[in-house]
Amino acid sequence: MALEKKLSKAFVKAMATYRLIEDGDKILVGLSGGKDSLCLLELLAKRSRINFPKFCVEAIHIRMENVEYESDTTYLEDFAEELGVRLHIITTGFSQSDKKPPCFLCSWNRRKQMFNYAQQNGFNKIALGHHQDDIIHTALMNMIFQGHFSTMPARLKMRKMPLTIIRPLCMIHEDDIIRYAALSKYKKQNKLCPFEEQTHRQEIKELYKRIENINPEARYSIWNALDSERKLTEDY
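Below the sequence we write its predicted structure tokens.
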């Protein structure tokens, strides 16, 4: 399949360009159940069967008991099993009385659970399913709303814990993942997050489409700017 080869080529290029995977890595994949995380797990699982670099992959799905956001865990278990990947499912929650936005609380608690599980079980890397569009949108959001030029890096080495965050889909376009998900018949999530529309991300996506209409090469200009300013590999 030409599309699968295209995804695989961009995936391997990202691995080499940003040194995302090394021999002996033990990688924990954050599997939300969305198209991006399913694609990420599939690409990593298939790549792990190649002799070098030699690494192992497991996945984690974190359920929020007080957010109406739901994936079919049976489907996720079957999907992971077909790829030969072990899946861990954890249920957690957060206090609704906190004054911080629910998206922040949900994300923070998911990351906390994932980081804790990774450290307790000997993983040295956590793989997240953010694609190139996500990274570019985040850069635009940070410039417009935060006043600084930064984004989610392709590789982020944590200073306070022995973990590195990697984003192996960082050179893959979202449209290609959408097409691949449809061709592969990925099952959609049962319920989407009820707070999704409360962020500026959808507005930024629409703004970015207008930017691409003005300059079809804008994607590469923004990416090259991030790369030249060393925003795609960071220590934190």
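Residues 125 and 209 are 33 Å apart (CA to CA).
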